[in-house]
Amino acid sequence: QVQLVESGGGLVQPGGSLRLSCAASGSFWRIPAMGWYRQAPGKQRELVARVTSGGSTNYADSVKGRFTASRDNAKNTVYLQMNSLKAEDTAVYYCNADVARSFSDMRGYWGQGTQVTVSS
């Protein structure tokens, strides 16, 4: 079984910063990609940022230049540094990982979600 445990959400004023962390634990071979999605009330879940094990990243257009995703492969952890936060960034942020338990067994896993609220 694989678990993703998130931390770092909270309440921040517009223009502020937060850093999210997500650590993977359990039995697996490797994690080719980890990332972050978010879901605001009444909206669909959307990709925020994704990082491969090689360090390649892709971002939603709405967060480019403000958010930075990074990984520590040794700790099986992905981070999301969020700067210049806006009210529209308010959402539940979910960690996601593509986890290979063997060469032929690849599955997607989700964290439990962490609330980020940007408000004055």
A few lines on this structure:
The chain is an all-beta fold and 120 residues long. It has strands spanning 2-7, 10-12, 18-26, 30-39, 46-52, 57-59, 67-72, 77-82, 91-102, 105-110, 114-118.
Structural features:
120 residues; mainly beta; 61% strand; elongated
General description of the model:
By secondary structure, this protein is mostly beta strands. Helices cover 0% and strands 61% of the residues. Strands 2, 4, 5, 6, 9, 10 and 11 form a seven-stranded mixed beta sheet that branches. Strands 1-3-8-7 form a four-stranded antiparallel beta sheet, with no helix packed on it. The chain starts with a strand and ends with a strand. The model has no long low-confidence stretch (mean pLDDT 96).
Layout of strands and helices, then pairs:
Elements: E1 2-7, E2 10-12, E3 18-26, E4 30-39, E5 46-52, E6 57-59, E7 67-72, E8 77-82, E9 91-102, E10 105-110, E11 114-118
Parallel strand pairs: 2-11
Antiparallel strand pairs: 1-3, 3-8, 4-5, 4-9, 5-6, 7-8, 9-10, 9-11
